[in-house]
Design goal:
By secondary structure, the protein is an alpha/beta fold. The termini are far apart. It has helices spanning about 55-65, 110-125, 140-150, 170-185, 195-200, 225-235, 235-240; strands at about 10-15, 35-40, 45-50, 90-95, 100-105, 155-160, 190-195, 205-210, 215-220. The protein is globular, with a radius of gyration of 19 Å. The protein contains seven helices and nine strands; from the N terminus they run βββαββααβαβαββαα. The mean pLDDT is about 90. The strands form two sheets. It has a six-stranded mixed sheet, sandwiched between helices. It has a three-stranded antiparallel sheet with strand order 2-1-4, with helices on one face. The chain has one domain (about 10-240): 3-Layer(aba) Sandwich (Rossmann fold).
């Protein structure tokens, strides 16, 4: 029997938080004691302002999946400075099919992951094969991200925290082409936290918006990312009057 994505169907709290005012439940979007997020499509985006909780929830899901908190898969084990919350221990993951393969990309700690791969290659050069047979540190930031996407990603569940951080607009379109290829195979699920209106445009994706009212599903055109970008591009000259506080 062939199992197709989405593999992960739902994430919710196991029980009521003991202290709903402690981190991370003090974050407005995560304060709801009935926290529940559904994944009805192979591609789901988390959007919201900085500090809205999207990366915190992404990280907790990745840890609950068994991935390294600083980035990597179940097989990547390396030292790092712990910064994660204990939210993962309080989550219940509901699966259509329990998927053990996949990867967690955390843009802010990707340097640590790349160093880990280099250290593995010191003892076995085959460690570089899943990344194009070349050190990730020997490429630009954007090139190393694309090497990961193009060589390492195949079947599995992929959790990506701001993958656009190192990608030019053209590279973001190349990433979408790779994502589309994997999604159409039926064997890949993506959960992506992003600020990019380019990535958010992927057809058929589910978009969950994190704000002071909780987590809600939005259409692409209703996201702040789309509206602000569209307004800016349509009349970018008028925006500069506000930079110095002018009305």
């Amino acid at each position: 029997m062939k199992i197709a994505a989405p593999f992960l169907r739902e994430v919710k709290l196991k029980d009521v938080p003991e202290n709903p005012d402690a981190f991370p439940f003090c974050i407005p979007a995560l304060h709801d004691r009935a926290l529940q997020v559904n994944f009805p499509s192979p591609v789901t985006f988390f959007v919201g302002e900085n500090g809205s909780g999207k990366s915190t929830l992404m990280e907790a899901i990745a840890i609950a999946c068994g991935f390294h908190p600083a980035g990597g898969s179940r097989n990547n084990i390396y030292n790092f400075r712990p910064t994660e919350s204990d939210l993962s221990s309080k989550l219940r993951l509901v699966w259509n099919f329990k998927m053990a393969y996949g990867f967690f990309l955390r843009a802010e700690s990707f340097f640590n992951f790349a160093t880990h791969i280099d250290n593995l290659a010191l003892g076995d050069m085959d460690a570089l094969k899943p990344y194009g047979d070349r050190s990730l540190h020997e490429r630009s930031h954007g090139e190393s991200f694309m090497a990961l996407f193009e060589n390492r990603f195949s079947r599995g569940i992929f959790l990506l925290d701001e993958p656009e951080a190192a990608l030019s607009p053209t590279r973001q379109l190349q990433f979408l082409a790779k994502l589309d290829q994997l999604v159409k195979s039926g064997q890949s699920q993506f959960i992506i936290a992003t600020h990019s209106p380019i990535l958010l445009s992927y057809p058929g994706a589910t978009i969950h918006s994190f704000d002071g009212n909780g987590i809600r599903q939005l259409a692409y055109e209703d996201t702040e990312h789309f509206r602000v970008t569209k307004d800016f591009l349509n009349a970018h000259e008028s925006f500069y009057g506000h930079l110095g506080g002018e009305e």
